[in-house]
């Protein structure tokens, strides 16, 4: 089984994932989920994503359910060299964000 994408192309995050995959030539099988019909609320889809949200990516027994991470995972398949730049960015962001004071409610 290859890469499966659970998408509703009426959703902007889903379109972003779809366009990215097509543009970069990443092979995938489209699994349409019609939000207007409530298919994302079904028990069958809850097995893919317990949060019942799209987009979702499944690669074998591995599943991603957040659009940013879906794009990141697909980027890694398209061009593994991008990961070095992402880790540098994460390290810099981590240093900046760790210095922020916590707000008390």
Describe how the helices and strands are arranged.
Layout: E1 3-7, H1 12-23, E2 29-32, H2 43-46, E3 56-59, E4 62-64, H3 67-78, H4 82-98
Parallel strand pairs: 1-2
Antiparallel strand pairs: 1-3, 3-4
Structure description:
- The protein has four helices and four strands, in the order E-H-E-H-E-E-H-H.
- Helix 1 links the parallel strand 1 (3-7) and strand 2.
- The longest helix is centred in the C-terminal third of the chain and has 17 residues, at 82-98.
- A four-stranded mixed sheet has the order 2-1-3-4.
- Helices cover 43% and strands 15% of the residues.
- The chain is of the alpha+beta class and 105 residues long.
- It is globular and about 35 Å long.
What features would you highlight for this structure?
alpha+beta; 4 helices; four-stranded mixed sheet; globular; single chain; GST_Theta; 105 residues
Give me the count of strands: 4
Envelope shape: globular
Strand content: 15-25%
Q: Give the structural class.
A: alpha+beta
| Major beta sheet summary | 4 strands, mixed
Order of helices and strands: EHEHEEHH
Which value, in Å, is the CA radius of gyration?
16 Å
Helicity range: 40-55%
Gap between N and C termini: 48 Å
The pLDDT mean sits at 76
Our count of helices gives 4
Unreliable runs, pLDDT <50, ≥5 residues? 92-102
* Spatial strand arrangement across the major sheet: 2-1-3-4
């Amino acid at each position: 089984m290859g890469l499966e994408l659970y998408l509703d192309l009426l959703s902007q995050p889903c379109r972003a994932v779809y366009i990215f995959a097509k543009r970069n030539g990443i092979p995938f099988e489209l699994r349409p989920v019609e939000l207007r019909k409530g298919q994302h609320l079904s028990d069958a889809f809850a097995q893919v994503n317990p949060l019942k949200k799209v987009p979702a990516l499944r690669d074998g027994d591995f599943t991603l359910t957040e659009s940013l991470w879906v794009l990141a995972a697909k980027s890694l398949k398209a061009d593994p060299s991008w990961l070095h730049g992402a880790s540098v960015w994460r390290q810099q962001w981590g240093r900046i964000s760790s210095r922020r004071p916590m707000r008390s409610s």
